[in-house]
Amino acid sequence: MAEKITMGPDGVLSVPDEPIIPFIEGDGTGVDIWPAARMVLDAAAAKHGRTIAWKEVLAGEKAFRETGNWLPEETVEAFKDHLIGIKGPLTTPVGGGIRSLNVALRQLLDLYVCLRPVRWFAGVPSPVRHPELVDMVIFRENTEDVYAGYEVEAGTPEAERLARYLREEMGWPIRDGSGIGIKPVSEFGSKRLIRAAITYALDHGRRSVTLVHKGNIQKYTEGAFRSWGYELVSEEFADRAVSWDDCGGDPGDRLLVKDAIADNALQQVLTRPADFDVIATTNLNGDYLSDALAAQVGGIGIAPGANINYVTGHGVFEATHGTAPRYAGQDKVNPGSVLLSGVLMFEHLGWVDAAADIVKALEETIAAKIVTYDFARLMEGATEVKCSEFASAIVDRL
Ligand code: NAP
Questions:
Q1: At what angle do helices 352-367 and 30-47 cross, to 10 degrees?
Q2: Is residue 9 over pLDDT 90?
Q3: Is 298 in the pocket of ligand 1 (CB under 6 A)?
Q4: Which protein residue has the closest C-alpha to ligand 1 atom 3?
Q5: Residue 147 a catalytic site member
């Protein structure tokens, strides 16, 4: 019988064998990649005696066409009520109203972690010589920083008022004609993000968590993020984790928590990728780092992502690329990003066997050089297949 996923009193998700999972097909190429990914997810779940009762909910262009609303209340309610959902890419409405549907969902459900695992799949064309050394999981803070949206435009009365206040009250010589943005970074927001990263690292047998920050310049925001991280290690994880300064880089059997300044981190993930494992970082750093790392393993078109609130249990798993509208309906693009987001969702639900099966079948398909156009154009001797054919090839190997 189809049932809802619920949050147990112990803070652990309770997942029935036939969970109801809301999905948003997505705009543009969503019509191609979602059915392809769903076919693979269903086949892998069935192999382990499980079924997913998919529940379509609307957002984006399809919602606007059918209801006149870009993000209907029922959709938000469905995600609230069922805890876990998955979505394809959505068109960002241009003009007034909602800034971005993705941002709206994140804010409405307070999804404070943006989770982006980055690893290489054998055979995927990569710009670096040793992409296999990249196996990182990025925890990007999702609700604060310059992304909070507190900005005023140069020349507006609001900007003038704020500039006047800053000049008169703070003594800051803000130039005339400046746009001004506010960067809030709180102890609460930082600690809950870093707590999620450390807990994940411990649960998944990872070696280290690196706090990536720009604290040498932005002391009271980025620098505080780092300090709060180390404080959290001694407050809550002293028996299982240790900071670099307290162990000289030798954590024994505990998890090592260290930090790196963002610009240095961006070069070291390229030159010494094996030194990085789980990464916890502020919002803007995380944005740069996630895409730079995905590109490093050639995976920008197949990178998965999720937005999670580990306290309430809410999670929205999503393709990280956009709608690629010029390919919409052509059964052409790579379904890998939304499929691997589904794999991430399976892992999150504790369906690790089905998740591992999909990863293995995907690896075998790519290793056989059966790929969609985006990989085919970079691989020698590849067989280019359609989006749906790629999914079928994965199912054949499950
Ligand atoms: P995009 O849709 O990601 O497309 C950019 C390029 O990325 C495509 O032209 C294609 O490159 C490649 N690509 C994207 N998806 C692919 C896939 N599944 N397989 C293979 N290649 C893929 O970015 P955009 O054109 O800037 O944005 C289009 C719309 O998507 C906008 O409305 C934007 O706001 C929205 N968007 C949504 C999300 C989201 O919902 N999470 C994220 C980003 C953007 P080639 O043409 O070189 O093959």
A1: 120
A2: no
A3: no
A4: 322
A5: yes
The pLDDT value given to residue 27: 95
CA 179, chain centre distance (Å):
29
| Tens of pLDDT, residues 64-79 | 999 999 999 999 999 9
In this prediction, residues 227-247 reach a mean pLDDT of 96
Asked whether the whole model's pTM tops 0.90, one would answer yes
CA–CA dist 82, 61 (Å, integer): 23
Ligand 1 center to 304 CA (angstroms): 14
Tell how strand 304-308 and strand 255-261 pair up. unpaired
DSSP string for residues in 23-66: EE--STTHHHHHHHHHHHHHHHHHHTT---EEEE---HHHHHHH
Helices marked H in the chain: 30-47, 60-67, 73-82, 101-108, 157-165, 187-203, 224-236, 244-247, 262-271, 283-296, 336-349, 352-367, 373-376, 387-396
Most confident of 36-45, 55-64, 84-93: 36-45
Q: Which residues contact 295 (CB under 8 A, 6 or more apart)?
A: 127
**Helix 224-236 × helix 187-203 angle, to 10°:** 50
Q: Interior CA angle at 193 toward 188 and 198, to 5°?
A: 125
Q: What is the dihedral of CA 310, 316, 320, 323, to 10 degrees?
A: -160
d(CA 282, CA 189): 10
CA angle, 50 as apex, 49 and 52 as ends, to 5°? 155
Please report which confidence band the pLDDT of residue 104 belongs to, taking 50, 70 and 90 as the band edges.
Answer: confident
Does the annotation mark 263 as catalytic?
A: yes
Q: Are 314 and 109 in contact (CB under 8 A)?
A: yes
- What is the Cα–Cα distance from 314 to 348, expressed in whole angstroms? 11
Of 227, 141, 149, residue with least CA distance to 189: 141
Measured from the CB, is residue 324 less than 6 Å from ligand 1?
Answer: yes
Residue 187: CB atoms within 10 A of its CB come to 13
Residue 341 tokens, joined: 């987001």
**Position in ligand 1 atom list of the atom nearest CA 318:** 41
For residue 260, give the 3-state DSSP assignment. Answer: strand
The Cα 154–Cα 38 span in angstroms is: 47
Sorted by sequence, the CB contacts under 8 Å of residue 225 that are 6+ apart come out as 141, 185, 190, 194, 211, 213, 215, 282
